[in-house]
Specification:
CATH class of the largest domain in chain A: Alpha Beta
Radius of gyration of chain B: 12 Å
Strand content of chain A: 15-25%
Oligomer: heterodimer
Shape of chain A: globular
Helix content of chain A: 25-40%
Shape of chain B: globular
Number of helices of chain A: 17
CATH topology of chain B: Non-ribosomal Peptide Synthetase Peptidyl Carrier Protein, Chain A
CATH superfamily of chain B: ACP-like
CATH architecture of chain B: Orthogonal Bundle
CATH superfamily of the largest domain in chain A: ANL, N-terminal domain
CATH topology of the largest domain in chain A: Rossmann fold
Radius of gyration of chain A: 23 Å
Largest interface: A-B, 32 and 26 residues
Structural class of chain A: alpha/beta
Distance between the termini of chain A: 62 Å
Order of helices and strands of chain B: HHH
Distance between the termini of chain B: 25 Å
CATH architecture of the largest domain in chain A: 3-Layer(aba) Sandwich
Number of strands of chain B: 0
Number of helices of chain B: 3
Largest sheet of chain B: none
Number of strands of chain A: 28
Structural class of chain B: mainly alpha
Largest sheet of chain A: 9 strands, mixed
Number of domains of chain A: 2
Helix content of chain B: 40-55%
CATH class of chain B: Mainly Alpha
Chain lengths: 566, 84
Amino acid sequence: MSNIGSYDERVKNFDWSISEKELGYKTGDVINIGWYCSNRICEMGKGDKLALLWENAMGEEKRYTYNDVRLCSNGIGAFLRRLGLKNEDRVCLFMDRVPELYIGLLGILKIGAIAQPLFSAFGDESLLVRLENAGTSAIITQRKHVSKVHKILDQLPNLKHIIIVDHDGKKELKEREVSFSMEAEKAEKLEIFPTKAESPSLLHYTSGTTGMPKGVQHVHYSLISQYLTAKWVLDLTGEDIFWCTADPGWVTGTSYGIIAPWASGVTQVVLDAGFSAETWYRFIQKHKVSVWYSAPTAIRSLMKAGEEIVKHFELSCLRHLVSVGEPLNAEAVVWSEKVFGLPFLDSYWQTETGSIMITNFPDMKIKPGSMGKPFPGITGTIVDPENHEPIIEPGIIGLIAFRPGWPAMMRTYWKNEETYKGKFKNGWYLPGDRARLDADGYFWFIGRDDDIINTAGHLVSPFEVESALLEHPAVAESAVVSKPDEINMEVVKAFVTLKPGFQVSEELELDIMNFIRKKLSSLAMPQEVEYVDSLPKTRSGKIMRRLLHAKEWGEELGDTSTLEND
Amino acid sequence: MNNLEDVILEYVIAEYAEEDDKVTYDTPLISGGLVDSFSMVSLKRFLEVKYKISIPDEDASPEAFDSVNKIAELVLRFTSKKQA
């Protein structure tokens, strides 16, 4: 029997107080995620239980009990306080998947500061716009990533401290740098900042269609959603070994890669290595992973590696598989059932929602390719794109919509209240995705309602890539769209016109690709650059991305009446 | 510099390594997390441009790109094919 039991019964009798009671929280109490994820578990007598088992590409392991996590996060909090950091200061985590990233997040939250995790593969431009927007006071990073910070340091007057977690003393510390050793700085005592339900906790940046990235602000009360969704969707129990493959630079990696499993007292494993089917299967076998939360891109990559390799590993430890990030295609669900004896269950949510919204539940009938049904307590529907009224008739495509008010919902976009307000229409929160409902109440994903590119589960803004392309000396104009990809669902494709004096060449294409990769990230790098003489524009001069997108996807061009020279 | 492995190694260090990353001919590039699957596309493109070859997607697996030595073997396979 799963934790959720009967989905229909849960929907009928749902109240978020179920989660509050289990966590011992009452309205008005102090609620601090850092404390809940470490101290509370120790106070429950589970201090010796393994909280984190970390392994890197060389097979080296580190193990942390819940008491270790408590002491280490206390140490980080105390260190930050000694530097003068206080509640609501923004502290960025910019690291590979090392233990300091996971435990550091708790340390930041314990002093009431706001954690700002950023993907360590970001280039200096991506880093700059996010640190600048947040007015970040400190960044915790590794020696290998420090050079990116120094490149942009002159433009970041608010960034007072660069905290290096692996300083070996071989090089002298530079301007604003300070060394920190998590092992050496453990602290038995730390005064936890008395954050309340609405105190800000995390700032996750997500891509915008027409503007720069937006800082999605979450609060400590998000724990209420994250805990219960982990219990009922991921079906976590005290005996599980849980592996969330997402990087904490993205919201899945914090909500379900740190907060939910640790607030539940579960043992989680982390692999700080690149992808290969053999590495992943060996990791599952070695650590007896029982619950696995991964992404469609990874699942499709495993499918590509074939079924034969699976037979070389003992994977009977797996008992529950869940997927997130992009729509999970029906073939992948069928394949995983055949190969692992278990279907991957698709789940849907986004940075702004903070926790799982629509999903397939354990013990519920699975329709391969479907997103499933709303989590109990979540009112979700499909609305008409024009009047934003719910569409009652099954099968009609509309916009996914949620009634606001669940605990993990974002509270605003950082310094961008206007855009935040624009996400609500007719009393519904609109995540920006299109879908349809079937007669049984299952949601079926159709696609984005804007130009944002979802590549391997990560959102990339065409605007951000186009802006960066214009900084390349050869590029006169640019337009960026998605193109289909067998593994990543979509990848970035750029159309460019060249400035006079530059010639079309393969070398130039490679140079443009690498330029974007270093400036933004590998995710944002165009996988293809197409040279064109001119870009399709409206008569008012606006580039019509829609036409380029249609061409890539083999779709109808639609209305071209506003096309220049048409 | 003419040696195939050296050219690839130099390119990998210049393009993908971060400060303090130690990269040798056998360093795991993909499984080690130095080059991700997206960046692998630009590495493949570099090889194709530099050696005037075309590497089919089915041959451009993470395993085939997992070290400088393995990449050199792959390039040799396609440059030999071209000569034949």
